[in-house]
Amino acid sequence: MKRPTCLLNAVFALLLAGCATGPQTTAGNARATLTPATPTTRDLVQLPPPKGKVLAAVYGFRDQTGQYKPAPESSFSTAVTQGGAAILIKALKDSGWFTPVERENLQDLLTERKIVRALEPAPGKDAPPAGFPALLPASILIEGGVVAFESNVRTGGAAARYLGIGLSTQYRVDQVTVNLRSVDIRGGQVLQSISTTKTIYSYEIHPSVFKFVNFKDLVELEAGITRNEPAQQCVKDAIEAAVVHLVVQGLRDKAWFLKDSKDWDRPVIQNTLRDEDTVAMLNGVNPER
């Protein structure tokens, strides 16, 4: 009766050692990759070409929620990413409809331009001054931010156990909302205003075994896996969805135009219009085309 117990203990020790060293070794050897695309990225890059790209300035895209991660994770780490402006600029550029101009770190750009001018040789008496291109003025401002982060919107779980063998699961749903608006720099009027919401899913699976294999021999096994959807990816998805709706609303309001008017019937545009009409009807608003 001693040999099976010793063999069982040895197997458990090997399993625990493998679990302790395996994930760390794998994570340490993983290569860096490009940020994966979100479900909305496909719609963003499939937008039809514009008649002319719009020069857009982004001065910032702030986290306006004031939410921090719950303890014990951190009392000083924010719940959502603070890099919303960088995500927005990339989404605007990937759409093919906007040409973003640098405004968030404008002072750094101006400093470099001063350095270039200072290093230029002085022109001769009759020579024209060295040409240096002027900064591009934006046609519209893109404003907005992360306006809401709601944690534990839904929570739940289930568990079952039979003859010492059990399985339990838990899940949690959070929610992030972003607002995006375009502003005409000539008169300051807001052209379009979009709000998009993305849910963040987290779940845990915990199997366990508590069983006597002999009269005095007890086996107890536990395992678990937890998956938290990255909040940064969800913010990216919400911003990209807002950019898609911004483009389509601008087409509907004739703020900008398609290169080919036949592209109006493309699925990406019609599906976006259908989603907006559905939300408008649910809010009791009669959508106008």
Which geometry do the CA atoms define? elongated
Instruction: Tell me which CATH architecture applies here.
Output: 3-Layer(aba) Sandwich
CATH homologous superfamily identity:
ABC-type transport auxiliary lipoprotein component
SSE series: HHEEHEHEEEEEHH
- Number of contiguous helices: 6
Low-confidence residue ranges: 10-15
Count of all domains: 1
Mean pLDDT: 83
- Which structural class matches the secondary elements? alpha/beta
What's the N-to-C terminus distance?
Answer: 82 Å
Helix content: 25-40%
Largest sheet: 8 strands, mixed
Instruction: Evaluate the radius of gyration.
Output: 28 Å
Per the CATH scheme, the topology name is: Rossmann fold
Q: What fraction strand?
A: 25-35%
Specify the CATH class: Alpha Beta
Number of strands: 8
Can you put this structure into words, describing what you see?
With 289 residues, the chain is of the alpha/beta class. It has a single domain, classed as ABC-type transport auxiliary lipoprotein component (Rossmann fold), CATH 3.40.50. It is built from 6 helices and 8 strands, in the order ααββαβαβββββαα. It is elongated and about 105 Å long. The termini are far apart.
